[in-house]
Task: structure prediction
Amino acid sequence: MAVLAETRGVAKHFGALSAVDSVDLAVSSGEVVGLLGSNGAGKTTLIRLLLGLLRPSGGETLLFGALPSMSTRRRVGYVPQTLGLYDDMTVQENWTFTAAAFGSARPALPESVRGSKDELVGSLPLGLQRRVAFAVAFSHNPELLVLDEPTSGVGPLSRARLWQDIRDSAEHGTGVLVSTHNMEEAEQCDRLVVMVDGRVAAEGAVADVIGSRTVVQVTCDDWRRAFAVLDADGLVVQVQGELLRVPGSPRQVEDLLAGHDLPAAVATVPANLEEAFVSVVSRGPRP
Result:
């Protein structure tokens, strides 16, 4: 697979703040790379560096083997968190302007947004604005899609449709870089890059990020009270039906619950991606 975009030891400092610190990243044709991290981890800054919207403080970024430029950006479809649309222009005007900016043919508006073609983008509901932004990003058949939190505020059906479009694009050779907080979405990516404090803390397929991590599964008749006890002790507890999942050792969890007269059955089970993500973020960046 050809490498479409990459950063090599890229860094970005804002005064004393290191928003991105020595990050290596690559996106190849036909793959979907998920960029994960808490707010402030550096995901959006890294995306802006990759696209040439910010000048790096160190390292380098390459788009299609060259420094980011107008010609390389024309081969990219980008949906920023702010959607990148002009609120005081109609849907049709945004569509026409983007086609002219990219120097591409002007196909008809997709049916999903055609009914709103004469409405100002700023007057549309957020979900419909996002559909317009997605349509614009896909309009010139980009070789690389860069999507920054694309499904924020989008309903389940629209989210599923977007991810179907993402997978269809990848199957036709488009590379995709997508940032997300949604672990179900992350599991649809071919490869993940987890950022903590501006650095890469873990990367690889979902199974690689999870690795050998385990959690304690708790079965307790009074699971609500058990949850309260574990949560009060500072443990990160997930609820699955009437089962509880918590990091730690079985003995630690069992003793804690027994100290509150809560008999429970505990077992060690493999962690899921969300639990692995919490573990990675808690551990911090790699040395």
Observations:
- The chain has a mean pLDDT of 87.
- Residues 156-171 form the longest helix (16 residues).
- The radius of gyration is 22 Å.
